[in-house]
Amino acid sequence: MNWDDTTEPTAAERLVGSVADGEDQAVEAALRPRDLDEFIGQEKVREQLDLVLRAARARGATADHVLLSGAPGLGKTTLSMIIAAEMEAPLRITSGPAVQHAGDLAAILSSLQEGEVLFLDEIHRMSRPAEEMLYMAMEDFRVDVIVGKGPGATAIPLELPPFTLVGATVRAGLLPPPLRDRFGFTAHMEFYGPTELERVIHRSARLLEVRTTPEGAAEIAGRSRGTPRIANRLLRRVRDYAQVRADGRITREIAEAALAVYEVDARGLDRLDRAVLEALLKLFGGGPVGLSTLAVAVGEERETVTEVAEPFLVREGLLARTPRGRVATPAAWRHLGLVPSG
To answer: Where, in this chain's numbering, is DNA bound (predicted)?
Structure first.
């Protein structure tokens, strides 16, 4: 990165964004744990999933269908890979937006091998016709392929080998009950605590061959918004700073200086987050203010404010959504060092 580059990042390019870009995906592949013992955090989910997989192996059967919900970057894709590895089965990866017709899904299902694990990311974004086909495939391991149109259309039953579907979603509530009920095991993945993130950072630092002090790892963890993907991304950027402007070793001071350059503050807020809070506090006295007005004030689209900035600000207790509009909390005033007007 050019230190003098003033180009503003898009929502997908934010350093603290939870969406994985091409670079993230490549690095994540190298840093992913290979089994449940290596997987850090989510202890309850790991314990429950371990029982499901052990029992399936003991029976010599395919594992039950698994639904994983939670925010991006918490390890849903990693767990799907671990499920396939633990079951010694191939893994097929696709996503809801890629399955827009029942024929798309039929083509995928008909090519599965026995015992194969199908990972369907963003399952809530699958089309309704494909979703209805998936009901029968999950329950009876067969699909009806419709040939022709109108009164002359014919349904040809197609038997499928037993397989395991792993669905991932950030919004489990958007799944219709008939689909949700067909999963034998459902798990909600929680945000990580600072101690867990420090373990993630130390593990990643070893794999990346980066020297990191406990204090340096703690500083990065505290700004990682409870998300391992963000922790790994911040670690790589701090590593770059340490290599260029120091001796390559990550200490607390180096982490603080590096993240100041990248505009990630002590609570993990970046430029966009602070712009939203500053507009709300300085321009509108803390609110309430309508979403459209707030978006115009920060020069962003409504969707960017609601989907990119607000979730973390609400979770941190810095912003509240009310029927009358967005309102800043006392914590927001304190965080920016401002005094409430009036």
So the answer is: 302, 321, 326
